[in-house]
């Protein structure tokens, strides 16, 4: 049997003392036979870290449909070829919502590993090979063997889950098929969607008992899977299965495989929300039992002056960018390397280096408008907020001095907003604490009209809004550029709270317990509770009291709290709401103009193209030719 596996990707241990964290940062490119890969515990561990390598690659936001196809961030268009600047150099995923997806050569192809996608079938095969051979090392303790098997099962489950979210009903790869297997064995069929979800959940359940409750040695093992992580993923998997995209979606009711089986459930099953709710509570309990708690800002730089207002913003921002803090239930080792894409030029130093700051991650105007007013309700519902005149101009005042530069002209819509707006989004006139200046009495500010942050060819922001949340305040651009790196969080505690609230509302509708979980998130942001905010300030005062109304509130709360974290694109898909979000044009300010009157004109950047078929990704047509047992993703035929 060993001769059937002569060429397999393996991560080889360079030295025994090298930490697990270092292994998890390296994609294996070595080759070995099974005899050497499982000859002893060290070699087997190296193979396990090879199984982890695809997981680490998923932390690159450019590969994540939840980030690039969410319309939270868009990329400038190259007018010469009507593609985003950068082309296939890592930014092609932004082209999906511009109508450039296709079945001949799919963007973000995770089936075959092209166009910023990864070949997750290969990753799954590697996990299966590990599981089938981990009995071979004789010097491996029972404890190690149990833990490593559990890690491999988790990884295999998660890779299947990622494929399900992208393609819907998929084949299940539970064993590594021999390379000389007959064609009928290789030409696998898709399983029904519910069977796919059940398989993932079963693998997670099998993995949990053998995983450590928490990582004890962060220096050596940060990034490895724990039982708390597995429970959090299970909760998300079950909530995804219960959501409208996959739970009795009428758009998929007639999709059948080559044998005539319905691949998708034809009717919604409310009990799926109950199972998801139970899993959410179990995940929350597991996380908090290991010390998970909301983050508070911890000073790790030379702070000259910082007001309470600035400290609150840095707490909200730091929950995401301050690596390995207690709020981060699941964090991956690879560091975020795109701060220069999310940063405006706020100083002469930043403007002096042509390659220091690109600013290309552009936040659409519509995304900025999902954030609440300072009363904690949507801007179009707040009866005290001037929604009609939000595009008019207003000068910065003393009340907003730690958010907007005093006496600087900015859009009226930037005033009287919630703290998460100011911690997540930078705009013309907004203060920028950091970049070498940590005195918020004299902080840098964004001058997008006629200053350092204004239009520069090939290095420009196309909307006039930046994803500030993605940049650590210790990052500084200029003559001595330093980008403060951070590990990418895949899940934070508030995400679990809001997911639990969503499931509870779907099961029983509004109630005290549902409000409690939402209000914990809102309280940290300095907002009143849901009931108080809607009762006092909303034009739709009873919205929170109905299941449909509270659903809208929870969905918007998740989009705000998890903005720019690579989650919104997945959520909007499973809710079947992305088509509505992308119905109108991507808009921003007229970034090429260098006068206030010229800049503050709403500009249509481009019109997204997103139809029913775009909720799932196409399988490459070539794969359908080589495996006639497969059926194409719905509406891509």
> Helix segment count?
24
- Report the sheet with the most strands, covering strand number, pairing sense and barrel closure: 2 strands, antiparallel
Low-confidence spans: 1-31
* Shape verdict: globular
How many beta strands in the DSSP annotation?
14
Q: Spatial order of the strands in the main sheet?
A: 1-2
Structural class: mainly alpha
Q: Percent of residues in helical segments? A: 25-40%
Which assembly state applies to the chains in this document?
A: single chain
Which percent band covers the strand fraction?
A: 5-15%
Computed over alpha carbons, the radius of gyration is 25 Å
Mean pLDDT across all residues, rounded?
92
Give the N-to-C terminal Cα separation: 39 Å
What features would you highlight for this structure?
mainly alpha, 637 residues, 24 helices, 7% strand, 14 strands, two-stranded antiparallel sheet, two-stranded antiparallel ribbon
